[in-house]
Amino acid sequence: ASARLTRRVPALWAGITEAFKKDTDPKKINLGVGAYRDADGKPYVLPSVLAAEDKVIAQRSDKEYLPITGLADFTKAAAVLAYGEDSLPLKEGRVAITQSLSGTGALRIAGAFLARHYPHAKSIYLPAPTWGNHIPIMKDSGLEVKTYAYYDKKTVGLDFEGLKRDMREAPNKSVFLLHACAHNPTGIDPTREQWKEISKIMKEKEHFPLIDNAYLGFASGSVDNDAFMLRHFVSEGHQLLLCQSFAKNMGLYGERVGTFSVVCADKEEKARVDSQIKINGNDRVWASKLWIPELTSGLPRSLVRPMYSNPPVHGARVASTLLTDKALNQQWLAEVKVMADRIITMRSTLYDLLNELGSKREWGHIKSQIGMFAYLGISPEQVDRLAKEHHVYLTRDGRISVAGITNHNVRHLAESLHAVTKD
Length: 423
Ligand code: PMP
Hints:
Blueprint: H1 3-6, H2 12-22, E1 29-30, H3 47-58, H4 72-83, H5 88-91, E2 95-100, H6 102-117, E3 123-128, H7 134-140, E4 144-149, E5 151-152, E6 157-158, H8 160-169, E7 175-179, H9 192-204, E8 208-213, H10 223-226, H11 228-235, E9 241-245, E10 258-263, H12 267-278, H13 305-308, H14 314-324, H15 326-356, H16 364-368, E11 373-375, H17 380-390, E12 392-393, E13 399-401, H18 410-421
Parallel strand pairs: 1-12, 3-4, 3-7, 7-8, 8-9
Antiparallel strand pairs: 2-10, 5-6, 9-10, 11-13
Helix pairs in contact: 3-14, 3-15, 4-14, 6-7, 8-9, 9-11, 14-15, 15-18, 17-18
Bound molecules: 4'-deoxy-4'-aminopyridoxal-5'-phosphate.
Protein name: Aspartate aminotransferase
GO molecular function, one term: pyridoxal phosphate binding
Enzyme class: transferase
């Protein structure tokens, strides 16, 4: 193999974890991990998940393959969770949905779907910055990656004017990836009024939204609240793609549970999209308004089958139980709120301590940002000092996982942050 093929490119946070492991100081804190930690800093399995798992195991189901599009009970319930009980496209039977390998797998299907079936653009606009894996996923799907303005360094807030400008200047019918809530890495979300404006511009420009929903319920503790953006876009008549993950809100990280769905114009279009997702072979009978089949390339039409054949069954059974068993569903929603609330409390504790320590900096963004991550607005040099002098580890963009903060380590974090930012 050539040197280029064998060269190792260390992932940003893998380097942090490595350095964290090597550090022997008992005060050390790892704020690089994108997974929830409980009040003692330990990985957390939700009690509702354990109960659902018991129920699944008691059924002694077989381990046969699922259909290409996964467990129908699960995808149906997942769609209702995201789009809402009263969703018009769901009622009209025009949402095509397939189970996916969590959010990443859904994004990969979305990328392949756009590359193969969206005739208007072979590029995708991602917010600057965005979750690191968005870029390779979309490139790997054969799309050209472009960016739109999102983060404003000066205000540690949203660059709303820049965002609107970039949407207006992009060619009509461009694809834009939007984070539904709890933007990763910045924790900065548009307000409801801003989402309404974004929706309007995207309608005028006929842009096509790809919505990444990795934190439903996890951001505010309320599914309905966190689903506002998606449901607003749907109610405004957008056709869109949705990638849903149950990694964070159910803590099912390694089970790889998610969905990919397409809001279609009508039932006929849904039938065509369904076939593009699942049918193997080269049938070219479907011609669609929006989704043109690959008439010339001779590629197999199924997106899922050549990638992984069919999705894993266990996690989907657990998620399905949590979504459909009334009592377990209530328990799960309450536990989602506990996780979200702990994160919100840690944000204000950190903020209060920084002020108590006499920091002259404005840290309001720590409290106002949403979801698992906080973007501190500090320099890479300050991040390096946090690691070297204070045993606090985070990515060099200044992002911390708030889920990694506990009552035991928050004071050390505040003192360290104050120490590296006071002059
Ligand atoms: N999208 C965003 C914005 C994320 O932060 C993540 C997880 N870090 C994902 C998608 C995908 O995660 P998973 O594949 O574990 O569902």
